[in-house]
């Protein structure tokens, strides 16, 4: 008989064991300790044990679902308008027995009892309260298509696919650098500047990325030192055992409005890659909405290629 209950402090070792047994695909970290869950999930100021529901068989955890909420518009506190099914998994030997469906039902009840007017499955910025650095790569990006079991599960229980995030990666090998005379000319006009101080990070940013080492890179015009493009880089240390690569994630790529579609976004990425190559970083990942052809084209011109897709699912009423 399966028992369903909220999270208890003694659960983390079994949750890590369950995670490893589920083989979640290329986009899920592996071989991490309970300390990672403590730092990235349980210690979040908005973690609620009632939102993490486990399924037990004879005191063994055989499944869990984790539900939560995203931020308000100002990103200063939580908003309960949209509920998020952040993560769900069931041990392989207990699948197709209704365990996953019952976990989802309990998570939906939790979300609605706490004010959710709608529910989505899969996390993507800014609706991504947990599991940064552990699922999704550079950031959570919905339900990954490489996690095929999860995709089939959500569609089978009545969730409908919505917004998609494309996941791009590229090797930092010099052989992958494109040859582009426009980039050579632009490089003469700018300089790359680094720093660890982000531009007024919000509470929401700090709760998730404040737990990682991040660096912001800027392109500044040489003539007046004006910044025209910036991107933040975060380390993906938990993926080293699985990917066998020293990887980083690119976040918040922005180009000043007056300098867009002139090659500066591509140049910034290439300059950061050249810089990090000297630090023995070998792989970079960045996400982009599939509905944004400009950023997708910029990434492709910088040598990135799609390796996965993340999908946000919504409960059909």
Distance between the termini: 30 Å
What is the class of the largest domain in the CATH system? Alpha Beta
How much strand?
25-35%
- What kind of sheet is the major sheet? 13 strands, mixed
Summed over residues and divided by their number, the pLDDT gives a mean of 94
Number of helices: 9
Write down the overall geometry: elongated
Helix content: 25-40%
CATH superfamily of the largest domain: Gcn5-related N-acetyltransferase (GNAT)
Low-confidence residue ranges:
none
CATH architecture descriptor of the largest domain: 3-Layer(aba) Sandwich
Supply Rg. Answer: 21 Å
- Count of folded domains: 2
Give the SSE string.
EHHEEEHEEHEHEHEEHEHEHE
CATH fold-level topology of the largest domain:
Aminopeptidase
Give the tally of β-strands: 13
Task: Determine the structural class based on helices, strands and strand pairing.
Answer: alpha+beta
